[in-house]
Write a structure and sequence with these properties.
Chain lengths: ~325, ~110
């Protein structure tokens, strides 16, 4: 049992030898250059056109085609292991173990007779020369063997490991829109308070009637994903929504509208004029005349307000 | 190194050791008076009385353990036989009446 414990302790001591590990990477020559194409998820876009009272959206899906230019290099990864204490430990271990072993051998050549000139309190004579030499040899082995093991383990773990690798480096990249295709699925026109209108795109085309779009549209989604719209399409949407709002609004005499309501109506008429210029123009003129009259009556030193009757009334559409 | 010891001494060798230490020159007056020996012939007389000059001698009364106990003050100066005990050490050792009786020749 004690021998087994000694072996375990020696083995554990061997594991305590510190090893320094350093790794360096050395880039080698260029092996080749090549292109790697790939396809990335693109976007959903739409173009809007309108012919009153119908709004038409053409929904298109696209991908991003990426072409990477890559260079492949050879690379060496060198791992060096060093045990600085291995040398001193090994030399100490060899010397002390050797001395211990020699002393053990010599102990059989010296006298085994006890030292009778000495007697301790327990009535024992002093140790013989052989006993003393063996005691010192044991002390040497106890010190020398672990040092020897540590030194050997350190030397065995010392060395260099080289790995040859190939590494890639991106030299350039080009992205292009590709794979344009019409989409089929749910389309929603969203306003400030949620969905304004919903439709189903078939082969990329979805149509909305003017009666369904009665409030401003802030966003278009396809299958709950945002749809990109260009500038002209955004203008068409704005105009269509404005015309739709005007259709739903009750006709009131202009002089009964507040200034804010009058300005808002002027904005809607201006937007709707892009789609229905002939229909909207007279109303817009009337609203603008009313606005001018009100501005003039508010100016300092202006004549008293009160337009003649009939002025400011919108013509019926 | 503390574990390096020799074999047990025989009773005869132990007895002789006691005699040698008690009779170490200069012999203490107490040893002379209590044991009734001469300073010049202390060892011979005590060996003859106790009979431990013979190698086959063995302790009976007092026992070996008792002798070792009473001998303890005599080794205060050191385990070597050449280490002379002080007269105080001798007095302490002769404080064992059974050892004194043994050294006087009573068994």
């Amino acid at each position: 049992m004690s021998r087994a414990a000694c072996v375990v302790v020696l083995a554990l001591l061997g594991g305590c030898a510190p090893i320094e590990v350093t790794t360096r990477t050395e880039r080698g020559p260029l092996l080749r250059t090549f292109h790697r194409p790939s396809i990335l998820e693109g976007a959903t876009s739409a173009t809007a056109t309108a012919s009153w009272p119908t709004l038409e959206l053409r929904v298109v899906g696209t991908d991003t085609c990426r072409d990477e230019e890559l260079a492949e290099y050879a690379e060496e990864r060198v791992t060096e292991r060093a045990a600085p204490s291995a040398g001193p430990s090994l030399s100490t271990g060899i010397a002390v173990t050797l001395a211990g072993a020699i002393a053990f051998g010599v102990s059989y050549a010296v006298s085994s007779a006890p030292d009778t000139s000495v007697m301790d309190r327990a009535g024992r004579f002093g140790p013989s020369p052989a006993t003393l030499v063996r005691g010192w040899s044991l002390a040497g082995l106890v010190v020398g063997l672990p040092a020897l093991v540590v030194g050997i383990v350190g030397y065995l773990q010392t060395g260099e490991e080289v790995k040859h690798l190939k590494v890639e480096q991106v030299m350039g990249q080009r992205d292009a829109v590709c794979n344009e295709r019409p989409l089929s699925g749910p389309v929603a026109l969203l306003g400030a308070r949620g969905a304004v209108a919903r439709g189903e795109a078939v082969e990329g085309v979805v149509r909305f009637d003017a009666t369904a779009v009665g409030s401003p549209v802030e966003e278009v989604t396809f299958a709950d994903r945002e749809v990109e719209l260009d500038g002209p399409s955004l203008a068409v949407l704005e105009a269509f929504a404005a015309c739709g709002q005007l259709e739903l609004e009750p006709v009131q005499p202009l002089e009964q509208l507040t200034d804010a309501a009058l300005v808002a109506r002027a904005g809607r008429l201006t937007a709707c004029r892009r789609l229905r210029p002939e229909v909207v123009a007279p109303s817009l003129e009337a609203v603008q005349a009313e606005l001018s009259r009100r501005r003039a009556s508010e100016a300092p030193g202006a004549p008293g307000s009160g337009a003649p009757s009939g002025v400011g009334a919108e013509p019926q559409r | 190194m503390a574990g390096c010891v020799g074999p047990l001494a025989t009773d005869a060798e132990l007895c002789r050791d006691v005699v040698v230490r008690l009779c170490h020159v200069p012999v203490c007056d107490l040893a002379v008076s209590r044991l009734g020996v001469d300073a010049d012939t202390c060892e011979e007389v005590l060996l003859a009385r106790t009979g431990c000059g013979a190698d086959e001698f063995t302790f009976s009364v007092p026992s070996r353990d008792r002798v070792l106990y009473c001998r303890t003050p005599l080794v205060e100066a050191g385990d070597a036989r050449t280490a002379a005990p002080s007269c105080e050490n001798v007095a302490d050792a002769l404080g064992c009446p059974d050892l004194v009786s043994f050294l006087k020749g009573a068994q």
